[in-house]
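Researcher: Here's the sequence for the chain we discussed earlier.
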Amino acid sequence: MRHSLVCLLLLVCLPAMAQIYKYTDANGNTAYSNQPPDGARAEPVELKPLNSIEPRPAAAPASPAASTQSAPAPVAYEQLELTDLPNDAALRANDGTFYIGVRIKPRLQPDHRLQLLVDGKPYGQPTNVPRLQVVNIDRGEHRFAVLVHDARRIIQQSPTVTLTVLRAAAGRP
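Model: Thanks. This is the structure I predict for it:
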């Protein structure tokens, strides 16, 4: 079986190793062939050697003990704060829906997520988009903050912003 495989590989490689000839045909066009043509002067083509690069040696895998000891330090963000909120601490949202922006520098790391906190409790789903929507929140005073976390731990939390949400009240007759 092994002998047959070697012979088959040699037969497949032989055409690739054949000599290439360059000649000019009857119409004056330059042509190439693996056989010299009859009645035309053909020149063997010398091919330049192929470019090749030696592969880099594979790095040895880190031992599990070394990886658990040197866990990467959490990234501290220079700036993490809520934006797009009114300065006078009152926000009119008759349907209780509004957006809160997040200013974060440097950019959010790929494995980090933003989580909005309303009155100290997680609100909505974690996201990587720095624009968070609050939907149908009750009127009154609320505390808002955003935290950055990865799959294992909380990385950083923004300062808390206290805001009064104003909603239209249905009048009684």
